[in-house]
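Hey, resending since the last one bounced:
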Amino acid sequence: MTSVATKVHLTVDVECRAEHRKGDDIEPSFGYDERVWGRLANHREELGLGRVMSEIEARGFRATFFVDPLGSYTFGREGLREICRTILGRGHDLQLHLHPSLRHGRWLTDGEPSLPDDMSDYDQSEQAALLREGLGLLEAAGVERSRVRAFRAGNFAADQITWRAMAEAGLVVSSNYNPCYFSPASVAPSDATAGLFATGVPGVVELPITCFAQREDADPDSLRHLQIGAVSAAEIIDCLEQSRRLQVPHVTIVTHPFEFFYLDAREPPRGRVNHINLRRLRRVLDHLAARRGDFAVQVVGDVASEAPPILAEAKPFLVGRRSLRLRRYAEQAVKRLRRKVRSPQVWVRTLAVRRS
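The structure tokens again:
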């Protein structure tokens, strides 16, 4: 076994949500309090971003927060400044994230035209312009331009044009390659690896999202990516250990602040802790803390600073275990049930409104 520690990247996508249609209904937009902070009327403490940072800091780690600044057009520049100030003030890494639809967060209410949410729906000049727009908003929110070296597209919906647009905008690390999210617009490079790989665009490298096959035949349709809300802690830990044995040099884990609470009502915001996802995060962090000699938690900004970056060799797919998958199915079923069964206070309030 190699003596070099496997690098683990804890990444958190920080974003608001634009309005969208769901059948004949309009699903509402969610701003910083409901989508990022988890500031709920029935809880004294915040359940989102601050809690995630505290859990990571308690083990002595730093994480990378991919922040989408486009929501500030709808939900306020001060809200974006507060997020950036808090992340950087607590010693974490801040990089760029973009959901282009958030340029018109309340487009249905305001009668605006819809905007494509996938970066791959835009040509190279449009993508480069979006990247520069996002960088400008972060800089206006107090983030030094030189700190922002990496980019993740909303929905992981980047393509090879995105790499060229990143080069134009001065960004050097893409963290978008996720085989679980392939679309017709996505282009899978033939030399993609499970760790950091060259994009073919000078100066731009790709740090992929770590995936595993749910079946031993490694069928692409069975792939699952390492997201706290999508797979169990046991599966993430199993993938960490497989990566260690196979000498895969990089493991990238994804989550969002809103994965750690249920939102039951919007006005005022009310909800509950998502205990299953919170336990998953804690178990993964505890495993990394207990195995510091084998796993080194690294922020994405440090990957960008490596000159030249150490590229990975081709490795076989990680393969999940059936027993762990079946346990995850049970966990996910419990989560779906808890999401539907709202807290008693919300039911009382709902009944009171109906009776009136």
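Residues 322-340 form the longest helix (19 residues).

Sorry for the duplicate.
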